[in-house]
Amino acid sequence: MPEFPAAERSLRLGVAGPVGTGKSSLIALVCRALADEIRIGVITNDIYTDEDARLLRSAGVLDPDRIRAIETGACPHTAIRDDVTANLQAVERLEGDYFPLDLVLVESGGDNLTATFSPALVDAQIFVLDVAGGGDVARKGGPGIARADLLVVNKTDLAEYVGVDVEQMVGDATEAREGGPVLALSRTDDASIAQLREWLLTLLATHRAGAHSPQDPGPMAPHFHADEDGGHVHSHDDVGAPHDHEHERV
Amino acid sequence: MIVSSSVAPARRNASATLAMLLADSRLPAGAHVSSNGLEAGLRRGLAASEVADYMRARMTTVVRVEAGAAVIARHLAAAHPDAVMDHLDVLEAEWAARTPSPALREIALALGAGLARIGQVIWPQTAEVLRPRPMPRPIVLGIIAACAGIGPDDLVRLVAYDDAQTVAAAVLKLEPTDPIHVTSWVLDACATLEGSVSELSKLTSPEALPASGAPLIEDWAEVQSVLPRRLFRA
Questions:
Q1: Pick from B109, B100, B99, B73: which is nearest to B88 by CA?
Q2: Hey, are the CB atoms on A74 and B114 less than 8 Å from each other?
Q3: What's the rounded Cα separation, in Å, for the pair A206 and B148?
Q4: Which of A133, A137, A129, A144 is nearest to A184 (CA)?
């Protein structure tokens, strides 16, 4: 589509992750933390309802008309990855109606560990897990966990009730991401919200400077190839690129 | 000027190739949100065993309106390059008059917008007509057909096939059954329309657009638009 160069339009930020990990709450947190400083819009993708849009509207963190729901029912993965038409139309319409926006957050229809956004739709993406989903989830990996621009381990305030060691979970996640950023977040922990805010503002500045290029986390999790040495873990995000690390022997 | 624009390099594809492309569900046009009213129909008592009949019923009713609108839009875009928007406005009014359900008109506009995104990029000569305002899907298809070179016969078949295949894909999500059977229903439905291809493909005047809507399909479209916990938007 003919459109502005990426740096001259809003930063489009995807928020993905399994159902119930707190994607909508994270968006509400971002709006609360930043709505006074930057111009924000939100697109939600729900599977059966416009529940997420209604929740965000009722949170009162943003002008309700700046929160739009699209329906992806039959194919929530498709709508953020292989056929982003409906989402792109909604994002462009929102950007047009409230020009100029600084940030458009696109919330995926909560689905599972494999769904990630296409770089044709978003400039960057956050993948959200929560401690209540189990301390081992970060270790299990997947394209979003391993290669989203930011991995959030949410609801850290619940860790003591569900018997999860947050430090361990963040450590596992950092290892799965080969050092990529991981943020332990709780809406009751102001320091963690400040970190999220800082990450986002830095990303926005990079985007505006034209120095940010969207990365695709990839369509599938790294998987295991058996061989006579016992096999190795193989990922698909670096086909044709020189490896800067040895494949992990397992 | 949309047909003989010299701005864009001419790309020649056969009418059949273009029709296959536009009828392919893998085309990124956002069309997977529609079940062509099947979801509401099933909730309102249509039996899974009657879905083949539903596809055929559509062929003798709403598909004639959609295919006719596409063919006439194709003709107008080719015949009146200098006043195409005025002619298309007349056609759209005739189409709307034969599509009384607001929900049906709304989804046609949404799907038309998805297709128009593709049209403007792949066939830049269509941009002048497609950009100013959203148009219903059959009219967008007709404009693309005029510019890209899809013959009127293929255009009618494309609309028919797409209509049946949309129901087929939806039934496999809503009431899964042997997908090969469902595929045969699509061909049966298309065969129903084949006898009308010649007649529909010769339409040129907006006033001649068939008035063959189906009240039950219109009703289901309205039901679908407010269906709680629906999987499909339309």
A1: B73
A2: no
A3: 41
A4: A129
Write the CB contacts of B75 (distance below 8 Å, at least 6 apart in sequence). B142, B146, B152, B203, B204
Residue of B nearest to A75 (CA): B32
Question: What is the tens place of the pLDDT at every residue in B11-30?
Answer: 789 999 999 999 998 899 98
- Among all chains, which residue has been given the structure tokens 């159902």? A19
CB pairs under 8 A between A and B: 47
Parallel, antiparallel, or unpaired for β A223-225 and A124-130?
unpaired
Look up the pTM and report it. Answer: 0.81
* ∠ Cα B69 B71 B76 (to 5°): 90
CA A166 to chain centroid, in Å, comes to 20
Asked whether the beta carbons of A15 and A23 are under 8 A apart, the reply is yes
Closest chain B C-alpha to A45 CA, distance in angstroms: 12
pLDDT in tens, A70-99: 988 777 888 998 889 999 999 999 999 999
For chain A, list residues whose CB is within 8 angstroms of any CB belonging to chain B.
1-2, 48-49, 71-75, 78-79, 82-86, 88-89
Chain A residues in contact with B117 by the CB 8 A cut-off are: 1, 85, 88-89
Tokens of B192: 């129903």
Does A100 sit behind a cis peptide bond, omega within 30 degrees of 0 on the bond before it?
yes
Beta-sheet strands, E only, within A28-79: 40-46, 67-71
